[in-house]
Amino acid sequence: MGGSLLTIKDLHIDYRARGETIRAVRGVSLELGFGETLCIVGESGSGKTTLAMAIAGALPPNATIRSGEIVLNNVNILNNREYPRKLVSLIPQEVGSSLSPFHTIEQVFLDVLTSKGVTDKGEALKIARSTLSLVGFSDINRVLKSYPHELSGGMLQRVLIALAVSRRPLILIADEPTSMIDASLKRDVVELLKNIVLTQSASMIVVTHDIALAPHLCSRIAIMYSGEIVEDGLSTEILANPMHPYTVMLLESIPRILSPRKLKAIPGLPPDPRSTLTGCSFEPRCPKAIKGLCDKIKPPLSTIESTRRVSCHLVQGKEVTLNEDPSS
Amino acid sequence: MKTPLLEAVNITVSFPLRRGLLGNVVESVKALDNVSLSVVEGEVLGIVGESGSGKTTLARCLVGLVKPDSGRVLYVGNDIFKLKGALYRRFRREVQMVFQNPYTSLNPTMKVKDIIKDVLKASGNWDARGEERVKDLLKAVGLGEDVLHKYPSELSGGQAQRVAIARALATKPKIIILDEPTSALDVSLQAQILELLSDLKRRENLTYIIISHDISVIRYISTRVVVLYKGRIVEEGPPGEIINNPKNPYTRKLVEDVLYLYEFIEKR
Q1: A288 and chain B in contact, CB less than 8 A
Q2: Which chain A residues are within 8 Å of B216, Cβ to Cβ?
Q3: Residues near B47 by Cβ (< 8 Å), separated by ≥ 6?
Q4: Distance from chain centroid for Cα B73
Q5: A with B: how many residue pairs have Cβ under 8 Å apart?
Q6: Staple partner for B137: which of A75, B121, B155, B166, CB 3.0–4.6 Å?
Q7: Residue from A188, A239, A258, A266 to probe the interface with B (highest B Cβ count within 10 Å)
Q8: Is there a contact between A257 and B213 if contact means CB atoms under 8 Å apart?
Q9: Nearest CA in chain B to A188
Q10: Chain B residue with minimal CA distance to A261?
């Protein structure tokens, strides 16, 4: 691996809404290597989509990056507005509203590819055809001549994937590619994305609330909770042996079909995103929390094994003492 | 055999796709094709199907929101579309529905307190103890008095769905029809709501018909499962039997796909 493709350091992102500050991302650091695949897993409000939008350079206008760095291909993209956005392609979540209803798929491809610098129409169409065939279309002429409303939701999603791939990005970001669809379609999307990573040798970041699917899609998982990464590591290892209490409880709350057993729900709700947190963000819901430690001192995201980082006093154990200075 | 509480007998529903010059239906689609099912007291009947299978239309028929083109829906033996007077009011009281999206099924201009109060009044359960009863209902679904004066938009998804369940409970129903009650929620909240539904069933002696595209939810909560595909019932049986030994090709494919997707959860 030729070093890191993407490095994020202590990133903080706020939203301004109705005069209040919502702290969506609170100090995220992570790395992505060339050809690596990473799932950012979290529930609503965990900050996973905000993080992905920041990487894609597609944050909404009311979001501010308060501090931190996003370094892509050795360039800090936060200080460099001119840095080519085409290095990152986003597959949006909203399939229905992502394409202009007034343009055919062919026109959309030509627009996207022209902006990327492919000015020759024949060349652009060739790229369009090959990526449409990559995502599994056989009747490509019909698709190119169609308007978005003439295609089904599943077909539109494949068109959006093809559009993202056609720009030959270094990083492909998929935002909730499998939410709100049936199992068979979900399986198709999972297999399609897997295949694309293999054939295009791109790096991929998948944002999802569905931890069960993560090992199918990505080699690594980062679990987010209230704006922070609480655990990350290899997908299969995290599913087999979760370490952070939140990850453990999240996996226990998924109903199984072969060996059903009583679900253990996580009591309570995530903390208010407007609040400033002292201590561990999961402490109020954590059955193992230690009073005077977990509610006072924020656990750092520390490396436990060579491939695993966890932010929990109980996992890090011994070396933490009650008198430790939280700022050190 | 117990007499069914709620029963659908050969119901067929079609929706017009295209109308001609004179407004006559030229083309239509059958959402439900000759569907029969019944539920007895104390059961949890799960209906599983993909989008477009007709499961929501079936739910709407069972509560009387959609009148089938042919066939009948019976509540304790009486055709629900012919009920009048006290019998009709009893049906409306005893059969309740909880919808998928609590934000669209709760009135956004009313506070939680008034949403529940309205139902208590309409069902004739409002008396001197009314205010207390609102608090009791919220407590039964795990909500505190802090939500009384909130509007639905100020609640989280899980809280709003709890309010929708409290509203259904306000009429002291015998049977609740739940249409995708957890699919708009995160898994940790889904587990909370499933836990709540199981508790309520025991405490209030309820019967459920639960509709979902998610076979793991159906497997978890149901005592009997019906598989709906393209408007027809293709398989019916105990949940374990449907999962471990699916007979219909569609069910087999569904179970296979889910087992593939949840491979890493199942083998934990």
Answers
A1: no
A2: 254-257
A3: B37, B55, B58, B59, B209, B210, B211, B212, B218, B225, B226, B228
A4: 15
A5: 107
A6: B166
A7: A258
A8: no
A9: B257
A10: B220
What token pair was written down for B198? 């199981």
**Using the beta-carbon criterion (under 8 Å), do B265 and A254 form an inter-chain contact?**
yes
Token look-up 């793991």 returns B216
pLDDT digit string (tens) for A188-242?
999 999 999 888 888 999 999 999 999 999 999 999 999 999 999 999 999 999 9
3-state secondary structure labels for all residues of chain A:
CCCEEEEEEEEEEEEEECCEEEEEEEEEEEEEECCCEEEEECCCCCCHHHHHHHHHCCCCCCEEEEEEEEEECCEECCCCCCCCHHHEEEECCCCCCCCCCCCCHHHHHHHHHHHCCCCCHHHHHHHHHHHHHHCCCCCHHHHHHCCHHHCCHHHHHHHHHHHHHHCCCCEEEEECCCCCCCHHHHHHHHHHHHHHHHHHCCEEEEEECCCCCHHHHCCEEEEEECCEEEEEEEHHHHHHCCCCHHHHHHHHCCCCCCCCCCCCCCCCCCCCCCCCCCCCCCHHHCCCCCCCCCCCCCCCCEEEECCEEECCHHHHHHHCCCCCCCCC
- Look at residues B190, B143, B196, B215 and name the one whose alpha carbon lies nearest to residue A250: B190
Complex ipTM: 0.85
Nearest Cα neighbor of B60 from B15, B125, B121 is B15
Q: For strands A220-225 and A302-305, give the pairing.
A: unpaired
CB atoms A239 and B268 under 8 Å? yes
List average pLDDT for each run of 10 residues in chain A, which is 328 residues long: 82 91 94 94 92 91 93 86 78 87 95 87 94 93 94 90 91 89 89 90 92 94 97 96 95 90 87 88 94 93 91 71 42
Give the span between the Cα atoms of A321 and A305, in whole angstroms: 21
Is B220 in contact with A213 (Cβ distance < 8 A)? no
Tens-digit pLDDT string for chain B (268 aa) = 678 999 999 999 999 887 888 888 888 889 999 999 999 999 999 999 988 899 999 999 999 999 999 999 999 999 999 999 999 999 999 999 999 999 999 999 999 999 999 999 988 888 888 999 999 999 999 999 999 999 999 998 889 999 999 999 999 999 999 999 998 888 888 999 999 999 999 999 999 999 999 999 999 999 999 999 999 999 999 999 999 999 999 999 999 999 999 999 988 7
Give B-chain residues touching A259 at CB under 8 angstroms: 266
On chain A, the residues whose CB falls within 8 A of the CB of B183 are 180
Tell whether A285 lies on the interface with B, counting CB pairs under 8 A: no
- CB atoms A187 and B261 under 8 Å: yes
Contacts of B220 in chain A (CB under 8 A): 255, 260, 263
